């Protein structure tokens, strides 16, 4: 695949991811507001937010296995259908339990899309392109996180909070469907020929023992939990502090905008600091900023804190993807990415539930202190993340008779 076409598939993937993520980012705060309007307390909001990750928790590794030995692209339209349906039906649901179910469907759709998309980037990028391409890929997520909360804030409000939040969810479902327009023939089918046969499956234990995989998983879990709880609980903080939903939407989008800015300058930052130090510094700063949200402050100061936090959080996701991909054995990169996503979803189940418990006991701002502690642990693990590009360094130096790393070298022009 030539350079022009290479940029073409990545650009179309970024556009599709932008629409899918915008729908989810619009739906998550809308679900929280609708749950509050239906009589939920802070604990119930945490449970509804946690169910979003429950179904994906059990589906990630099987989907990753399938993708390692087949095509990535079919997962993308399946994910879009589930996201669109989950968003719209969450808005039409009339009870908290049915909202939780459709929130889980939305989460499963997001998982399908992300596994397919991440595997596509790993498969169609040369090793030296992975930091850059994963960074560009995650710009799609950040664009969605920028637009989604603003759209939600514009639609939600007034005396009929239940009705306006339902409208926002239906609109989010329609927006997700637009992602279909960028998915036609996005995968180069010749790349599938380099996949290993199903009989060559690498054990999960070998993947988890690869140096860099556990660190990448912890960093990703912490960063995503921070983003997730910010999205789900900043509306609750706003309700307690008298901040309007439209302002909360702008604040969440400000955080996403700073994340985009971070990813645009990721390459020079990597050249300056290297991957382990950059991950360590940004996780450490994010820990301090997250804990700071628990303190009462004017709205403009909160905006500055969220912008700085968004910049720091922008580093973790793309670099944790590269860390995991380059540490994983050949023929197990999609499975390794799926394990990373399993860790993410485990965090998305446990963190909101823990946040709801902490909020109920210590106040609605206390979950942000908990997030600060998680990010502090991630800063320590980031020091162990490998810096040099590579891959296939564990669980067998050869796969299918070829030296480890040969498949990636073969895919340099894919």
From TrEMBL:
InterPro entries recorded: MFS (IPR011701), MFS_dom (IPR020846), MFS_trans_sf (IPR036259), Sugar_transport-like (IPR052528)
Domain of life: Bacteria
Transmembrane segment boundaries: 43-63, 75-93, 99-122, 134-156, 162-184, 215-236, 242-266, 278-311, 349-377
Keyword Protease: no
Domain Major facilitator superfamily (MFS) profile: residue ranges: 208-414
Stretches the record annotates as Disordered: 394-414
Membrane topology: Multi-pass membrane protein
CDD domains listed in its UniProt record: MFS (cd06174)
Gene3D superfamilies: MFS general substrate transporter like domains
Main location: membrane
Keyword Transmembrane helix: yes
Keywords: Membrane, Transmembrane, Transmembrane helix
Bias type Gly residues, positions: 394-403
Cellular localisation: Cell membrane
Database matches in PANTHER family: INTEGRAL MEMBRANE TRANSPORT PROTEIN, INTEGRAL MEMBRANE TRANSPORT PROTEIN-RELATED
Full protein name: MFS transporter
Phylogenetic placement of the source organism: Bacteria, Bacillati, Actinomycetota, Actinomycetes, Kitasatosporales
